[in-house]
Amino acid sequence: MRLVHESSGDGPAVDDPSANGADRTVLATAVDVADSLVSQTRGLMFRRSVPADYALVFRFDSARVRDLHMLFVFFPIDAVWVVDGVVQRVERLRPWLGFARDRADLIVELPAGAAADIEPGDRLTLEGNDEH
Q1: Mean of the per-residue pLDDT values of the chain
Q2: Beta strands 30-34 and 54-69: pairing type?
Q3: For residue 41, is it within any domain?
């Protein structure tokens, strides 16, 4: 599975010639889905780092306000709140003290800096093998 970012801008395609003028970038090829209460509660807690091409994805059945906390997370992350594939918010969260909330049916946690080019209105898509 991979996480793909599609810019809402009108720039030329970067790494996907079939993108019809959209700027598509693969953000992560190592994607974990937090699909149980335990995995959602734990998130990235107690890990010392994650690879540069990593994403932790939280999928929900409906869009509503969702919280993220950084308690016991030892490194900064970029968090993205998504509704129906469209980015609503992008936030850099600090280790231990970070907290943010917004409406989402999908939340993505990425290494700090990985979401630097993502803006509200852009699209995020999970592609490929989905075992969950």
Answers
A1: 87
A2: parallel
A3: yes
